[in-house]
Write a structure and sequence with these properties.
Structural Genomics Hypothetical 15.5 Kd Protein In mrcA-pckA Intergenic Region, Chain A; alpha+beta; 11-stranded mixed sheet; 17% helix; elongated; 4-stranded antiparallel sheet; 2 domains; 341 residues
Length: 341
């Protein structure tokens, strides 16, 4: 399963593990940043141009939007002085990128550990940080939420899971009877799941109903016809857009999912998630994680929510995230109609 992969074969006993801390990538070490300290002169072609355009001479692989996003994580210096993206540069000036110490690495804090969000017997809801595998990969496979949870709640049964890059809520049952009951509730369309995501472009309010091919594929393929199961759809509700960065913060609503469902559906709509190395163009600053988190799950008898501690690329998006976290999460009448409720 991926970020919304609650298929029936996923329910299995969480085996006992070592219960160690969950560090991003399993090591807790931060990879070197190849852009930090990168420096070079302004060429004649960029004389009098805005700084965000002149950066093309320093980082030619990045698009204009990619260069603008650098300002969210780096101080961009012209002759040693931090400047804004609108600053006009002169030929011969030295441009330097200097990563800000408070920039972090987007949505995956390296020291974040899993936690039990709530116990509402016979169900448990855990939080999985980005960078941690949901399931055990066997001996030598590194730490996982599965081993962490099994060490603290022996015998619990995984009902949902997330892919390694995605953070958020993971549901488990305390016994087999509860696991079977959940599958019945899910198949009846009574499970409500909400993800927070940051997508590229001006993402509209919409519903993606396309079928997905996940068989023996590292990358899920979006098919040109509707899914046979109408519950496996993705409804998207935009919250705020930063026009300078061309990024939209949104909620994604699902009832059942397939591997990489939200990531593939949004990429298929032309709005790949920011920080997605598989479905996106990969022009983010080094160390940027995937901006996708499962923030709410609700079904009869159980309700849990938990937002990620993301470092957003702009103040506008950070404020929108704060409003979303503080407010209720519900679909309005128009969204319910789109989603088929």
């Amino acid at each position: 399963m991926g970020e919304a992969n609650e298929n029936e074969d996923a329910a299995q006993d969480m085996r006992r593990g070592d219960g160690g801390d969950a560090r991003t990538g399993g090591s807790g070490r931060t990879a070197p940043d190849p852009l930090d300290g990168l420096s070079g002169p302004v060429a004649a072609a960029f004389d009098g141009q805005r700084l965000d355009k002149a950066l093309a001479g320093l980082v030619p692989a990045l698009s204009l939007r990619g260069r603008r996003r650098l300002f969210s994580f780096y101080d961009v210096l012209a002759d040693g002085v931090p400047r804004s993206m609108a600053h006009k540069v002169r030929q011969g000036q030295t441009l330097t990128l200097r990563r800000r110490p408070d920039a972090g690495n987007g949505p995956a804090p390296p020291d974040q550990a899993p936690e039990l969000v709530t116990s509402q017997p016979p169900y448990l809801v855990f939080y999985k940080p980005a960078g941690l595998h949901a399931q055990s990969l066997g001996p030598g496979g590194g730490e996982s939420l599965e081993s962490w949870a099994a060490a603290r709640h022996p015998g619990c049964i995984a009902l949902t899971r997330l892919d390694r890059l995605t953070s958020g809520l993971v549901l488990a049952a305390q016994n087999a009877e509860a696991a079977r009951a959940f599958r019945g509730i899910e198949n009846a369309g009574r499970v409500f799941k909400v993800y927070l995501c940051l997508a590229r472009g001006e993402l509209p309010r919409t519903v993606a109903r396309n079928a997905l091919d996940t068989d023996n594929r590292a990358k899920t393929k979006v098919l040109p016809f509707p899914a046979a199961d109408p519950l496996r759809t993705t409804a998207v509700f935009p919250l705020a857009r930063d026009p300078d960065l061309d990024l939209t913060l949104a909620f994604a609503f699902i009832k059942k999912g397939a591997r990489h469902q939200i990531r593939a559906h949004l990429a298929g709509l032309g709005h790949a998630l920011y920080g997605d190395p598989l479905y996106g163009p990969g022009d983010e600053p080094p160390g940027t994680g995937l901006f996708l988190a499962h923030v709410l799950v609700r079904f009869p008898g159980v309700s849990a929510r938990r937002f990620p501690g993301w470092s957003m690329p702009s103040p506008l998006l950070a404020e929108a995230q704060q409003r979303a976290e503080a407010g209720p999460i519900e679909m309005d009448a128009d969204m319910k109609a789109l989603f088929g409720e």
